[in-house]
Write a structure and sequence with these properties.
10-stranded antiparallel β-sheet; 161 residues
Length: 161
């Protein structure tokens, strides 16, 4: 068995350290892609509508505009969904033109709430809040430009049903 010494040993240790650092970096980048918080006492509060199957028999019950704060023009939409089998609501943001975070908040009059932010262009959806029957829901969406300053929001939309 050959003993590893000199430059060859240094290269192997350096390669191992590089692989470890790269793995740590990839894990931290992946976990930062979608973040949020939620609360409520019902099973469906904070759950993913696709993972639970609640999206299968859901209906879009309303749409609200997201308006650019400088021009007042509609730049995107908030779609509000209701699952008939789960008695839960969630929202989807469509057409984020800015590429920064889409911050979404939805709350139920029964106490459930969900707040989350996803980066990127296009569409994203929130987790659910339990709101069967005549329970009310409300919320908002802010769209941001990319950057360090999180006060650089460009557009907002609100809803109350």
């Amino acid at each position: 068995m050959k003993n590893v010494t000199g430059n060859q040993g240094v290269r192997r240790r350096l390669a191992a350290a590089l692989v470890t650092a790269l793995a740590f970096l990839m894990a931290s980048v992946t976990s930062a892609q979608a973040e949020g918080a939620n609360g409520g006492s019902n099973y469906y509060d904070g759950k993913d509508p696709a993972a639970t199957g609640c999206n299968v028999n859901a209906s879009q019950i309303a749409t609200r505009p997201i308006l650019d704060r400088n021009t007042g023009q509609q730049v995107a939409s908030i779609q509000i969904f209701y699952s008939w089998s789960c008695g839960a609501n969630w929202i989807r943001v469509t057409g984020n033109p800015y590429g920064g975070n889409a911050t979404k908040y939805i709350a139920s009059s029964l106490g459930g709430w969900n707040s989350e932010w996803d980066p990127g262009y296009g569409s994203s959806y929130s987790m659910m809040v339990y709101a069967p029957g005549t329970a009310q829901i409300n919320g908002y969406v802010y769209l941001f430009e990319p950057g360090i300053n999180e006060w650089n929001w460009r557009a907002e939309g609100t809803f109350s049903l």
